[in-house]
């Protein structure tokens, strides 16, 4: 139920910014990385058709017919245990980043142990940005943090004084090399997508 509420709250956050964007004539900045390539197009087609993810020999997974590498990870995704992660340098709002991750059958990354946190910090440091989006949000209930992938919120690494919900509008989580921060979801930031901890896409 909390997941449904979180997704509803995230949708409301996304919808609330649309009239402002329309009034200002804001257009998305589609860099080469954000433009739908063949992999993203195939992923969207799979999502649209609501087809299950095909499974190949020895349990390797594919997305839109493209063979994955590592522990069921798509090419370019980094494997850690049973999970797959990828950093995207194209800044997006938290909600748009979550939607983008979903095209790949993933979500904004959840973090469940120091090893995952170290890996994601390393990925974040490669973006050239101080903070990158990950999948935590307290949009359902202030200071009750949930992961967008529905996994248990069983590990934290908040930076000093965080979360602080400054101006009462910081509902989304960003990761830095110094810890986690709550930030306004409408900020454009690079982001890290990840598969669920149980290895499901």
Automatic annotation (TrEMBL):
The organism's place on the tree of life at top rank: Eukaryota
Record SUPFAM superfamilies: C-type lectin-like
Signal peptide: 1-17
Pfam families, per the entry: Lectin_C
Domain (C-type lectin): residue spans on this chain: 80-194
PROSITE patterns per the UniProt record, alphabetical: C_TYPE_LECTIN_1, C_TYPE_LECTIN_2
UniProt xrefs under InterPro entries: C-type_lectin-like (IPR001304), C-type_lectin-like/link_sf (IPR016186), C-type_lectin/snaclec_domain (IPR050111), C-type_lectin_CS (IPR018378), CTDL_fold (IPR016187)
Keywords per UniProt: Disulfide bond, Signal
PANTHER family: MANNOSE, PHOSPHOLIPASE, LECTIN RECEPTOR RELATED
Protein name: Galactose-specific lectin nattectin-like
């Amino acid at each position: 139920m909390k997941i449904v509420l979180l997704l509803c709250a995230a949708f409301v956050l996304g919808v609330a910014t649309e009239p402002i964007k329309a009034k200002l004539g804001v257009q998305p900045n589609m860099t080469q990385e954000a433009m739908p390539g063949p992999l993203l197009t195939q992923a969207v087609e799979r999502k649209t058709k609501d087809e299950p993810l095909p499974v190949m020999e020895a349990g390797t997974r594919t997305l839109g017919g493209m063979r994955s590498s590592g522990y069921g990870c798509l090419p370019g995704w980094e494997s850690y245990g049973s999970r797959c992660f990828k950093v995207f340098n194209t800044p997006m709002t938290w909600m748009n980043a979550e939607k983008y991750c979903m095209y790949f059958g993933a979500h904004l990354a959840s973090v469940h142990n120091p090893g995952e946190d170290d890996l994601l910090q390393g990925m974040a440091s490669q973006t050239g940005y101080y903070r990158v989006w990950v999948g935590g949000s307290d949009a359902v209930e202030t200071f009750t943090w949930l992961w967008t992938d529905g996994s248990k919120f069983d590990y934290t690494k908040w930076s000093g004084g965080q979360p602080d919900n400054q101006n009462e509008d910081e509902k989304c989580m960003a990761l830095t090399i110094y810890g986690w921060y709550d930030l306004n979801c409408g900020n454009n930031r690079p982001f890290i997508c990840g598969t669920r901890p149980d290895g499901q896409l």
